[in-house]
Amino acid sequence: MSTYALARKEIEPEPLAPLAFLSGVKGYSRDSAREFLRAQPGFLGRNLQLEAARELSAAAGLAGFETMLIKETELPAAPHPIEPDMIEPKDGGFQARAGGALTFIPYDSITIFSAAAFDAPAAVDNIQALESGLFERIARFAGARVPPVPAPRRDTFFRADLISGEERLRLLLKPEKLDFSPLGPARSPASQINFRSLLGTLAAHCPKAAKNAFLRAFLAGGPLTPLKIASTEAADAELSRLLLLAPKLKG
Questions:
Q1: Domain 4-74 class?
Q2: What is the pTM of this model?
Q3: pLDDT at residue 71 above 90?
Q4: Which tens digit of pLDDT belongs to each residue from 183-211?
Q5: Angle at the Cα of 245 from the Cα atoms of 113 and 112, rounded to 5 degrees
Q6: 105 pairs with which residues across the strands?
Q7: How far apart (Å, rounded) are the C-alpha atoms in residues 181 and 187?
Q8: Where do the H-state alpha helices sit in 26-159?
Q9: How many angstroms separate the CA atoms of 87 and 233, rounded?
């Protein structure tokens, strides 16, 4: 039996805007509604039976959220990404370097341009991990109390996705992996500032691309915490919704 997704029609919806509405829907608390909206940005429901999806869509419409119903099997999947290590703006487009190869991407071929941030455990240094395990084994061997393991430090990770052309070439940009030398004298010691500068340059030349709320806020220097999503999987879910809506923008 088919299940359905309920996607918001607004191109740049704020993920938590429907929080009060969804908190009042049967089966949700405020916390679980927030968790869902951060994990499925731009959606009000996933994997719903048809009758439940129609009821939720009608209620959402009364609450001011215009939606569209689509079978889960017909929701476009986010293309497999290519992760460049350098982006260099040029006249009419930009060059992306990945695996040592350069590819020129025309600005007017970009159909989707989104950005995101999410909190996740920081990568653990191998030596630190070894030391932690070593101290634990020594304590156990000596019969001493095993010291508590501290919670892993969490960092905020930024990313941007650009999808080009009918072939849906997808570039996944991560500031920690990018060489910002093409910025020249404008390059900052802070990778987040460099990332904003690069995305601002690209976005200015892609006015027809479907963009998301986080990209707008990031470029404007606005508050980002309410726009953070749950994970990389959440970013892929948002891309699926933009892929669904992008063709309708042309029409």
A1: alpha beta
A2: 0.87
A3: yes
A4: 999 999 999 999 999 999 999 999 999 99
A5: 15
A6: 94
A7: 7
A8: 30-39, 50-62, 126-141
A9: 24
